[in-house]
Amino acid sequence: MKTTKQLAAMLMCSAIAMPGVAFAQAETATAAPAAEPSFAGSEDIIVTARRRDERLVDAPVAITAVGGDTLARYQATRVTDIATMVPSLIAGKAASGSSASIFLRGVGSTALSAGFDQSVSFVIDGLPMSRGREIALPQFDIQHVEVLKGPQALFFGKNTTGGLISVTSNNPTDHFEAGIKAGYGFKAEEKYVEAYLSGPITDTLSARLAGRFSDSEGAFTNTAAETYTNYIPGQYRTRNSDKRGFQKSYGVRGTIDWNPADSINLQLKAGMTSVEDGGPTDLVERLCGGGRTTPLGAIAGPGLVFPPSPNADCFVNGRSDSSALPIQVAETNFRHARDGHMYGDFKSQYAILNAGIQSDMFDVSSITGYYHFRQYDLNNVSGEAYPASFSQKADFTQFSEELRFQSKFSGPFNMLLGAFYAHGKFVFNTDAYIVPLPLDPINNTYVTFKRDNGFQTDSMSFFLEGTYDITEQLELSAGARYSMESRNSYQRSLPGHIAFSGAFPGGLELTDRYNDDNLSPQVTLRWKPQPDTTVYASYKQGFKAGGFNISQVLNPASTVESGRYGSETAEGGEIGLRTLQFDRALSFSLTAYYYLYSDLQVQFFDPTTVSLTAGNAGELRTMGVEADINWRVPGVDGLSLRGAAAFNDAEYRNFIGQCYPGQTIAQGCDQLPANGTFNGQDYAGRTPPKAPKFAGRVGADFLLPLSDNGMGLRFSGDVGYTSSYAFTDALRPDAWQKGYAKVDAAISLDGPDDRWQVSLIGRNLTNKLVVTSANDIPFMGGTGTGTTSGIVADMSSFVDNPREIFLEFALKF
């Protein structure tokens, strides 16, 4: 990277952004749940972005912090709910692979590959998680969420390139308290209840137990017919459910905190989650390619032509057709298909043991983690008239250990050093029912192809950071993480339908052993001209290991080389300002950044051959500015204003990638010639997917006292805006989400001494149906790619939540 150009770009961004304002939507990181909102100036906002408790105004990092009472105020219990509170964060479910699409500042990992680690990862109570399925975890009894942007090498276990979402749950309290709340969501007919119990057991032992249960009928309409006569005599499909988007979930978390001595602390957190729903594709709506207003029928081969779905349209309007598979198909050697109804069944468990020892010279901390999830699902991406369906089993187990030493020297120099190790095992098996044919009497199945896939991975890293106080106001920090990654991957094909034994023969096997290492340095210069003002500049690198694409289709042409992809790296820097002004009534921050991503991991889906290809893009450059503000209005007790804005300019460089299905030469499919056609397009100079140029959010809180004993009315409102972005990896011109604004609002009546509360909560009151990602539907177009004429495929698009209104009652004891 050319440092001079980086610095010039960051300075230019700073100059552009100085007039902008935004917000840090956070509250004090205390142990008490559902605390009063922490207005700027009342208490310091505490974050752990550098794995130490420090004020947000002192932290030299790009961070958005969302407090637990903000999440509770808007009934934000899903990662997708949290994403609406963070400008430039685009998150949603997906059908296959990681089952998630999470992008921050336009950087993320495609949802199709089950083998990719996520560029934007999760850390829950100190435990790193990077498979993407964590998006299904319900969030409850949360202390705060921190969204760290850009490469994160030093402080959170595994190295990441795009950023991370750190969730911290509430800890036990030193006094007894308990609470329960229950609510009803009108649109989805959702019933939910959440409760906690916390307090001391002995002088040295305290505990906390929290849980949540919800049952939702679904907010989207299912337009499928009650019964649809199918393509094979004697087989028919039934409507999958009356509504789409239904879900039943529960989560339980227990925490034990033990302080056997003043210098020793042990904390054990353990939890489990269950989520049962209609599967990721229950949220899918069809978008027809090329501006068509009528869905295409399927052409699965010579003589295999199927009509369009009669109850589907081409619009994102909350209406789509979802049907179960014929019972004969589901129950005949179709693994995990159950009775043919589309479903998702996610179960997870985790345990985290935090141990800390304080001494005069060093504080020693250890985080020992166990994490496991198992997900079964059956999905259909093409509607009731054509059964492009697949079942999946995803089973992941991870053990991890992190040990760190923080010095407490009396001089100007201190250091942090430690090591991290994780071992993971992932099983990803899938059966695909792509073309409806009569029963194969030899293999006794209707299934087109079957695969068993997976990997074992070991990650070891060592990290070191030194901090030197040059003066009382000037601090220099420098460090690095050295990572060693190994991954043993496999793919095996099992016998499917005999008619496809040529294209998808059973008995094939590929194995791959991948090893890589990386050194990611980081340097930060922090200047504090005043106690409540921080100015900083930092240089960072990030790393995400490569591996093998376990989601590719196996056929005689498949090779280990075709499935392998390399490591992804990031390099760049940022400068920032954090300050509290006007008697701490105003908090303001401003960040400018420039990062260059090399060998960005990408993957594309070809719906004609039903194949997945993985590889590395040349370069991706991101640069921009972010600002936030929080202001307690002088002279108006209880009024607080906030705002956030993010301008991001992301651009591919030096990248020739796959065409989208049906893309013609005139439409840009003019690269990578082969056999008289073209297979590639030039992405250089184009904006990557899920990278809006601008996103912002403004809001206010107002507390109106009604009595001297704490009774009052609380009003909250926020308006968020996100500009347009592409939502397919191949940047289809007909796959753009228009700019949209969402409005959230809440009003609550607080009882005396905060003992009870009645709330009316509205999310997405503008009822914007937003597409977070989309995939091409198999055999629904996609012909003539790389020629002078072509028909582009229809798409299955994943849609975010519609308008939601909740009535909630809460009690505290």
Could you give the topology of this structure?
Blueprint: H1 3-17, E1 46-47, E2 54-55, E3 63-67, H2 68-73, H3 79-83, E4 89-93, E5 100-104, E6 107-108, E7 120-124, E8 127-129, E9 142-149, E10 163-169, E11 177-185, E12 190-200, E13 205-216, E14 220-222, E15 227-229, E16 236-238, E17 243-244, E18 247-261, E19 264-277, E20 284-287, E21 298-301, E22 304-306, E23 319-320, H4 327-330, E24 343-358, E25 362-380, E26 389-407, E27 413-433, E28 449-469, E29 474-494, E30 509-530, E31 533-544, E32 547-548, H5 560-563, E33 564-565, E34 568-581, E35 586-606, E36 611-632, E37 639-653, E38 656-658, E39 671-674, E40 677-682, E41 694-705, E42 712-722, E43 725-726, E44 736-737, E45 740-750, E46 756-763, E47 771-776, E48 795-799, E49 804-812
Parallel strand pairs: 7-10, 14-23
Antiparallel strand pairs: 1-2, 3-9, 4-5, 5-6, 7-8, 9-10, 11-12, 11-49, 12-13, 13-18, 14-17, 15-16, 18-19, 19-24, 20-48, 21-22, 24-25, 25-26, 26-27, 27-28, 28-29, 29-30, 30-31, 31-34, 32-33, 34-35, 35-36, 36-37, 37-41, 38-40, 39-40, 41-42, 42-45, 43-44, 45-46, 46-49, 47-48
